[in-house]
Design a protein that fits this description.
By secondary structure, the chain is of the alpha/beta class. The chain folds into two domains: 267 residues, Spore Coat Polysaccharide Biosynthesis Protein SpsA, Chain A (Alpha-Beta Complex), CATH 3.90.550.10; 67 residues, no CATH class. It is 38% helix and 21% strand. The strands form two sheets. Strands 1, 2, 3, 4, 5, 6, 7, 8, 12 and 13 form a ten-stranded mixed beta sheet that branches. A three-stranded antiparallel beta sheet has the order 10-9-11. The radius of gyration is 20 Å and the shape is globular.
């Protein structure tokens, strides 16, 4: 097969140290051609300046302390890189001829558009370039192997009816432990997802799990998603109804309605810091920031109303259980927020 062109879209929001490590690992990818596209979502911590300095070779990234992960980004990739920068309007129009030679493109959104809004800038840029076969949406708080991209591309190339492909996600802080084997199951009646394989040990023969996992998958875990061009042209971009969370669930529903399969490349390994990009900050639910909690519940209600309206009554009931849990955890200040979201959701239903 001819080499497929992939655009690697990485969304940054006030997280340049993670982003630099991520980019160092992506630059080692042995599957080409590819171009890295960093979409900065209105950062206020000087992220764009730091990324520019790194690309010019004037700033070093911080490598992992764990030797198993340190080798993914060390020694640093040679600098300076061939890079350029666009504003949002120019990028969404496909940039210009200079991008033909660039290994890194920086795009400034000018404001925080959320995960979907920020990522869609990169998706529009890739589509407008005209030479894109695949787009890899990769969280900035990740580190990858040199063959991570290649295994996903190979999977989609031999599965022509698949639109989305996920990776084997391992915890960055515990690289011997699985965060998700490709994706998640979803219970529509409660609006809850469960990551497949979470907290299990790394399978000795991961590819033997692919068919089994694909039979369980509702959608792909969004830290690493490879998307083919035909999927974007037929299904569309990420829904910007969701500021954070449930973009993957929404894409999964739309994918199946359009006749696309969702698959898993078990040898495509990604180490995920989980939570750094959104303020989750850890592995346990009670560590979620209030911002993350708000958007998780809001998006859960929006998604249910959009795709599974018959399940709204049971989702509402499940959120009463959420309120009890927040009280038990001493997060009483979050209760009015949850009640407000419930009332707003019911109000939208009454107007529909």
């Amino acid at each position: 097969m001819n080499a497929a062109k992939t655009y690697v879209v990485v969304l940054n929001w006030n997280g340049w140290p993670d982003t630099l490590e991520c980019l160092e690992t992506v630059l080692r990818s042995d599957h080409g051609p590819f171009q890295i596209v960093v979409c900065d979502n209105g950062s206020t911590d000087g992220s764009l300046d730091r990324i520019r300095e790194w690309a010019d070779g004037r700033l070093s990234h911080r490598a992992a302390d764990d030797e198993r992960l340190r080798t993914l980004s060390m020694p640093p990739h040679p600098k300076p890189l061939r890079w350029l920068e666009y504003d949002r309007e120019t990028a969404e129009a496909g940039g210009d001829q200079r991008a033909n030679e660039a290994s890194l493109v920086l795009i400034s959104s000018g404001e925080n558009l959320g995960f979907a809004g920020g990522s869609n800038i990169g998706l529009r840029y890739a589509l407008a370039r005209g030479d894109m076969d695949f787009v890899w949406l990769l969280n900035n708080d990740t580190a990858v192997h040199s063959d991570t991209l290649g295994w996903m591309v190979e999977k989609l190339q031999r599965t022509p009816d698949a639109g989305l492909c996920g990776s084997l996600l391992l915890y960055y802080s515990r690289p011997e432990t699985v965060q998700a084997t490709g994706g998640f199951e979803y219970n529509r009646w409660f609006g809850l997802s469960r990551q497949i394989g979470q907290h299990s040990n790394i399978p000795s023969v991961p590819e033997a799990l692919e068919a089994e996992v694909e039979g369980q998958m509702f959608g792909v875990q969004g830290a690493s998603v490879l998307v083919r061009r035909a999927f974007l042209e037929r299904v569309g971009l990420l829904s910007e109804s969701y500021f954070l969370y449930f973009e993957e669930q929404d894409w999964a529903v739309r994918a199946r309605r359009a006749g696309f399969r969702i698959v898993f490349a078990a040898r495509s390994v990604v180490y995920h810091k989980e939570g750094a990009a959104t303020g989750g900050g850890g592995l346990l639910i009670h560590q979620k920031s209030e911002l993350s909690d708000y958007h998780a519940i809001r998006s859960r209600l929006i998604f249910t109303r959009e795709h599974f309206p018959l399940a709204l009554p049971t989702v509402y009931l499940s959120l009463l259980g959420t309120i009890v849990n927040r009280v038990r955890r001493g997060q009483i200040k979050r209760v009015p927020m949850i009640l407000r979201l419930l009332l707003e959701s019911r109000g939208r239903g009454a107007k529909a």
